[in-house]
């Protein structure tokens, strides 16, 4: 099944990062499974350990299943100073999970990340592809409620 | 061209999209046509407006009124009062007193000359402002060596960190014989607090492309890559559209303008690693590897991507090039200082009245930037420090506010300037806290290739955590500085060499704070 994604790209090593992105983005659990690695390895004619090497180097990839919505809260200095850890505390309570964990219903995974380049609106988080800025505890509650409602 | 009474610029960016700007625009258009104003008011969807308001923002010309945080419910009032009767709605304005409007000094703008003015998604808009004339000139009227001479003469230095003269860099690669050469645009922008490259790309993607094309011609590269961080979805979309439009206009492709020169441009996406902003790590990443830096020399200009000669330049560096080619080096040198020419794009954040984006002459002091471009400190706050240059940057205290901000004056701190991030802290904020956050960042981003940085960043984080908790001593503070110095001397790449800057400047300028917290 991953083969279909692979063949959209020429079988060259430099397409590995793009292939990994697309496989992860289209997987409902936002991760790269062992099967996926095997298929990529066959397609690109690369050893699996090279793929794991790359996969584990970059912070956007995961080798374990995650939730439908990946929350990435920025903790870099400009967001930190605007209270990103208050937001983190709020998120932990709202979701009942810690950093790196997924809610039981599989709807959310909570992660911390480095600067997202939207610091003009610190504190900031991304949920999947969407950016949420100028966060306050109330605003976070709202956002989470809305997404929960959709799932 | 149609004559409009007013131009309304709407900033389309990550934040306004999240705030629902698309449906806002639909509603605003509907209201304008309902009130019969569609022919008088020109609604323009554009990039950054030069200030960071909340949510949906717009600027109205010619009166230069800025609105922020607009909701659809505000539209009828806005249209009735402002657009119909000409009375700006104070309640919705960025600065309701109306005293301050971000200083958008169009005369001194090079890189941002079109930002917030044209529709960044329209190649015709760009061409309408004289776009791609520089490319045509470089391709049909100039030899590669003329281009390089002009850029050398302009004094343009890299805006990505090291500040290396761009023309000189190109001159190393141009004469090399090779089957294939490459240009790589460094759009990985990972320095915390930095997002000027994002705004440059969102506001005027074609200008970057034009600079890139001229560079490719100068060094004889027929393939170019833009390496951009995966989070910058809007930039990626706009750049891709810009590239596709260029292709269909024959501005890139094969035998461009009958010159016999071919050029292809591709976007490559990063996956969240700060170190990939380092040029050799970026090349590794482009090849599909872990982003570990390579030993230099050989420099990428000699052996880069797939061992072929490769010029890596920052987004802002390249965005300066079209101006230099069209107006000439002499005109360019009128900006900035004699040692450091041109302008610099900054983003100003933190406790200033109007956080925003500006482009100023090289050598402008921090005091001027804060007071004139950001409206001074936020009401009720006192200046304590500015963290300039992000995590790899340094703390400037009050007494350094009048240092000229250019590569020559900042000298050893030149990397600080590149990122263009200015984060202003107020007197209640703790330097120790901030340093903790910085060192936590480095611990996370160390790529693990070399020991001084891998273990050093961990040790620095443990020490600052101890100090932050009030359990440290002044010996720990000294130790932190010693470790960072050792890292500076022995680390493999500039990442491990950087933490010393923040640590030393924090301890030198705010020693009392360290004394106080260690005596708790
Ligand atoms: C850890 C690290 C991160 C860097 N990040 C960036 C970056 O995000 N953008 C950039 O243009 N240069 C970055 N650089 C600098 C590049 O290595 C390189 O000097 C630059 O792209 C050259 O372009 P310029 O000459 O146009 O400045 C970084 C360097 C290091 C060591
Ligand atoms: S200094 Fe740090 S980032 Fe650079 S190579 Fe060494 S471990 Fe990697
Ligand atoms: S520091 Fe959080 S987005 Fe830049
Ligand atoms: S012996 Fe410790 S790093 Fe080499």
Average pLDDT level of chain A: 95
Radius of gyration of chain A: 17 Å
Identify the CATH homologous superfamily of the largest domain in chain B.
NADH-ubiquinone oxidoreductase 51kDa subunit
User: What is the general shape of chain B?
Assistant: globular
Secondary-structure arrangement, i.e. CATH architecture of the largest domain in chain A: 3-Layer(aba) Sandwich
Q: What is the helix content of chain B?
A: 40-55%
Instruction: Calculate the terminal CA-CA distance of chain B, rounded to whole Å.
Output: 69 Å
Sheet of most strands of chain A: 4 strands, mixed
**Fraction of residues in β-strands of chain B:** 5-15%
Structural class of chain A: alpha+beta
Instruction: Estimate the mean pLDDT confidence of chain B.
Output: 91
What is the number of domains of chain B? 4
What is the overall number of helices of chain B? Answer: 22
Q: Which range best describes the helical content of chain A: under 10%, 10-25%, 25-40%, 40-55%, 55-70% or over 70%?
A: 40-55%
């Amino acid at each position: 099944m991953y083969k279909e994604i692979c063949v959209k790209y020429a079988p060259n090593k430099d397409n590995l990062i793009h292939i990994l992105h697309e496989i992860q983005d289209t997987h409902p659990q936002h991760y790269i499974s062992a099967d996926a690695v095997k298929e990529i390895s066959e397609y690109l004619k690369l050893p699996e350990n090279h793929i794991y090497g790359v996969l584990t180097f970059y912070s956007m990839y995961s080798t374990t299943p995650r939730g439908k919505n990946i929350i990435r809260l920025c903790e870099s200095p400009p967001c930190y100073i605007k209270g990103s850890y208050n937001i983190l505390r709020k998120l932990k309570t709202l979701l009942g999970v810690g950093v790196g964990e997924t809610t039981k219903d599989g709807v959310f995974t909570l992660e911390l990340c480095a600067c997202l380049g939207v610091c003009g609106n610190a504190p900031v988080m991304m949920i999947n592809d969407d950016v949420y800025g100028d966060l306050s505890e109330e605003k976070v509650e709202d956002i989470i409620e809305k997404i929960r409602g959709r799932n | 061209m149609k004559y409009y009474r007013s131009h309304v610029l709407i900033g389309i960016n990550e934040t306004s999209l999240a705030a629902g700007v698309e449906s806002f625009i639909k509603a605003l258009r509907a209201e304008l046509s309902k009130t019969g104003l569609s022919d008088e008011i020109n609604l323009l969807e554009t990039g950054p407006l030069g200030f960071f308001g909340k949510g949906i923002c717009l600027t109205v010309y010619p009166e230069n009124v800025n609105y922020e945080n607009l909701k659809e419910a505000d539209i009828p009032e806005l249209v009735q009062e402002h657009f119909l009767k000409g009375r700006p709605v104070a309640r919705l304005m960025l600065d309701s007193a109306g005293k301050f409007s971000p200083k958008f000094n169009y005369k001194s703008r090079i890189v941002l000359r079109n930002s917030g003015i044209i529709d960044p998604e329209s190649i015709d808009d760009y061409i309408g402002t004289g776009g791609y004339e520089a490319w045509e000139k470089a391709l049909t009227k100039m030899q590669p060596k003329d281009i390089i001479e002009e850029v050398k003469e302009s004094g343009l230095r890299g805006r990505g960190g090291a500040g290396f003269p761009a023309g000189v860099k190109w001159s190393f690669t141009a004469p090399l014989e090779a089957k294939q050469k490459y240009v790589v645009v460094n759009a990985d922008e990972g320095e915390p607090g930095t997002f000027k490259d994002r705004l440059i790309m969102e506001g005027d993607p074609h200008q970057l492309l034009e600079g890139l094309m001229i560079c490719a011609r100068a060094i004889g590269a027929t393939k170019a890559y833009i390496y951009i961080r995966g989070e910058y979805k809007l930039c990626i979309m706009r750049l891709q559209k810009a590239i596709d439009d260029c292709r269909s206009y024959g501005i890139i492709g094969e035998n461009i303008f009958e010159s016999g020169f071919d050029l292809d441009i591709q976007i490559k996406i990063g996956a969240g690693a700060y170190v990939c902003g380092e040029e050799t790590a970026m090349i590794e990443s482009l090849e599909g590897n872990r982003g570990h830096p390579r030993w230099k020399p050989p420099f990428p200009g000699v052996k880069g991507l797939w061992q072929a000669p490769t010029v890596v330049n920052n987004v802002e560096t390249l965005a300066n090039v079209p101006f230099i080619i069209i107006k000439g080096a002499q005109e360019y040198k009128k900006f900035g200082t004699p040692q450091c020419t041109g302008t610099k794009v900054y983003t100003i954040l933190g406790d200033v009245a109007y956080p925003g984006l500006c482009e100023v002459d090289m050598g402008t002091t921090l005091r001027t930037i804060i007071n004139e471009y950001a409206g001074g400190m936020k009401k009720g706050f006192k200046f304590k420090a500015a963290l300039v240059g992000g995590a790899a940057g340094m703390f400037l205290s009050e007494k350094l506010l009048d240092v000229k901000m250019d590569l020559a004056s900042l000298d050893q701190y030149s990397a600080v300037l590149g990122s263009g991030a200015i984060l202003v802290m107020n007197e209640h904020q703790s330097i120790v806290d901030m340093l903790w956050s910085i060192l936590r960042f480095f611990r996370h981003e160390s790529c693990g290739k070399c020991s001084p940085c891998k273990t050093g960043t961990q040790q620095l984080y443990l020490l600052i955590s101890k100090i932050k908790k009030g359990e440290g001593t002044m010996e720990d503070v000294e130790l932190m500085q010693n470790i960072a110095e050792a890292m500076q001397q022995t680390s493999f790449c500039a990442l491990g060499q950087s933490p010393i800057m923040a640590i030393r400047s924090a301890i030198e300028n705010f020693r009392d704070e360290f004394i106080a917290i260690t005596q708790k």
